[in-house]
Each structure stands twice: as structure tokens, then as C-alpha cells.
Amino acid sequence: MSENATSAESKKNQPGWYKEISKYAQPDLKKSIWQLINTFVPYFALWISMVYLVQRGTSYWIILGLATVTALLHVRIFIFFHDACHGSFFASRRANKILGYVAGIVTFTPFEEWRRLHNIHHATSGDLDRRGVGDIWTMTVEEYRASSKIKRIAYRVFRNPLVMFGLGPVILFLVSMRIPSKESKKEERRSVIITNIALILIVLGLGFSIGFSVYFKILIPVTFIAGAAGIWLFYVQHQFEDSYWSKNADWDMIKSALKGSSYYKLPKILQWFTGNIGLHHIHHLRPRIPNYYLQSCNDNIPAFSEIKPLTISTSLKSLWLDLWDENKEKLVSFRSLRTDTNLC
Q1: Residue 146 is assigned to a structural domain of this protein
Q2: Residue 173 and residue 59: Cα distance in Å, rounded?
Q3: Residue in 124, 126, 119, 47 with CA at minimum distance from that of residue 82
Q4: Parallel, antiparallel, or unpaired for β 323-325 and 139-140?
Q5: What is the reported pLDDT for 10?
Q6: How far apart are CA 257 and CA 143, in angstroms?
Q7: Number of domains composing the chain
Q8: Domain extent at residue 167
Q9: Torsion angles phi and psi, residue 129, rounded to 5
């Protein structure tokens, strides 16, 4: 089925309440500006404070505590970047682009390049026939069984939590995001170059002004904690037991959003730091809804009360779910395959 046909079929199957959520897809300039103030100001204030404390020889444990809070603000800035990529943070396209470039530099992510990859993710999430761009490598049970031993080992290494959330942030933000893909167009390649140049200037400027040792003592824990948290959020948004995957011929956008995108119900303070991104089912239904309207949309549309949320404790099970079982229509663990001695 073509993309246009799939889109038409999804529109045909839209529930009655679907059009109601469109009223939340209108950015509020005051809310947007206030979010920038209440996030960027404490973020840079914490950076300045940590520079001062490191230079005075303050206990590094105190620095790590402040770095953790800074990392959470770093995640929140990435959510603003994410909204800008969807054109939902401001009504103005130019304002979204400016914010996207600025927030992208802060979070080591090129605006145009990431926007392209993320838009592909939205268009293909849950589609078994269109995996591989902007998502997390996921194999079906049958694909895993048919793979070579080397590929199975590589997949198991990739899916190991220590690799995914330990090496993952380093590889993604320091290596992968520094290189445009072969499919990138001129503007997307330019965004990678601009971001890279800006980062080099920032690193050199701060390194020579406050000292490279001071800078990296702060940068490393902030970016590592923020990166690990960001990858975990992206992972748990689609990698949970009763998620949704379907062949392209049967793929449905509404089902993909409601069943294949989690409602990650976090404590209020973490929900603030993560910019309501846990309400991911609503975000995939209508990406143009700003982060600050996702909760009210969830509260005011009765149909969303039927969505079973993931909590921090229940989401941990997702760490051990690695393969999509097409027969059971759920994610399963490697352990479930141990009866087959060839796959141990």
C-alpha cells in the first residue's frame, strides 16, 4: 500500500474525537517564552555556578549533584528543540528554526538533519516494512532466527542496556550526529556543518577561557546523564510489551499512535523536566501540539482515559524485551527463545 493510500485509509478510520484535539495544536507565545526563561536561565546559571565551584576546588560530588539537575534541564531544552522540529513551539516558522538551531547547538544535535530523520520516524513508527530510520533497531523473532550468528551477536550487544544507555549517548551525540547521512539534502548537510562549527568554537572558547579541564569536568557528566536519559525516554516510548507493529498493508496511524506510543506517567517534577514527552501517544496523534498543551489534551479527551499508562517501575521490564513476536503480537525477551539451543 502506498503512503498516500495509507494516509487516506487512516483518515477514513479516524474516531469522532480526533478532530477535537486540533484545538490544542495552537502555540501560545507567552507560554513559549516563559518556558524558555524558566529553563535556559537556570541552565546557564547552573553552568556558571559549577565553573566557579570547580575552580575553587569544591568537592566533585557537589558538582555531580548540580550536573544532574543541569542534565535534566538539558533534556527539557531538547524537548523545546523537538517541538521546534515539529513547528509547534512557536507559530512562526522562522522562530521555530532559530530556536531549533540554538537548542540544537546546546544539545549537540543538528536541527535540519534531525528533523528529517524524526519526521521519517513519525511516518513509519510501528511499520514492520519501513523500519530503520529514526528508530531503535528492532528485529522480529523470525528475523532473528534466520540471521547469522554474527548478526545475532551484534544485535544482542546493541540491545544490551549497558551498551544502549552507556555507549549510546557517546556514539549518538558525539559521532553519529556529527556526520550527515547519504540521504541528506543540502540544507540538512549545512545544518550539520553549522552545528559542528558552533560546537568547535564553543569548546575552544570555553576551553581557553576557563580551562579545558574545568570545562570537561562539567560537560562530561551533564551530556552523559542527559544523553542516557534522552535515549531511555525515546526507547520506552515505543519499546514496551504490548506495543504496536504491523505490516505496511495493515499499518494504521491511529493505532500506531495509541497502541505503539506509550503514555509514560512520570512524577510531576520529572514530567516538567521532560516537557510532557511521556504523553507520547498524544504527540504521535498530533505532533503540532506544543509540549505545554499535551497534559490538558489528555485530561479533556475522554478517550484517552482508556490508555493504560507505564510507570517507572513497570517500564523497567522493557529493558529485557528485545524481539517482536508477530504471532503473539508483543515484544518478547531473548530468554523466551532459550528452548532453541541454536539461539542461546
Answers
A1: no
A2: 28
A3: 119
A4: parallel
A5: 52
A6: 25
A7: 1
A8: 3-13+24-134+160-319
A9: -90, -5
Q: Tell me, what amino acid is at 282?
A: I
344 residues of the chain, pLDDT tens digit each? 343 444 444 555 677 788 889 899 999 999 999 999 999 999 999 999 999 999 999 999 999 999 999 999 999 999 999 999 999 999 999 999 999 999 999 999 999 999 999 999 999 999 999 988 888 999 999 999 999 999 999 999 999 999 999 988 888 888 888 999 888 999 999 999 999 999 999 999 999 999 999 999 999 999 999 999 999 999 999 999 999 999 999 998 899 999 999 999 999 999 999 999 999 999 999 999 999 999 999 999 998 988 999 999 999 999 999 999 999 999 999 988 875 544 44
**Between the CA of residue 152 and those of 18, 137, 156, 159, what are the distances in Å?**
41, 12, 6, 11
User: CA of 7: how far to CAs of 1, 145, 157, 200, in Å?
Assistant: 10, 33, 36, 42
Q: Is residue 328 included in any domain, yes or no? A: no
At residue 125, φ and ψ (nearest 5 deg) are -55, 125
Residue 7, C-alpha cell as written in the block: 494516509
Pairing mode, if any, of strands 330-332 and 323-325?
Answer: antiparallel
Buried b (16+ CB within 10 A) or exposed e, 242-258: ebbbbeeeebbbeebbb
Is 153 a domain residue? Answer: no
Ordered strands of the 139-140 beta sheet: 139-140, 323-325, 330-332
Q: In the chain, which ranges are continuous DSSP H helix?
A: 3-12, 29-55, 60-85, 93-106, 111-124, 141-146, 149-159, 161-162, 168-170, 186-210, 212-238, 253-260, 268-273, 280-285, 294-300, 312-315
Q: Residue length, the chain?
A: 344
269 in a structural domain: yes
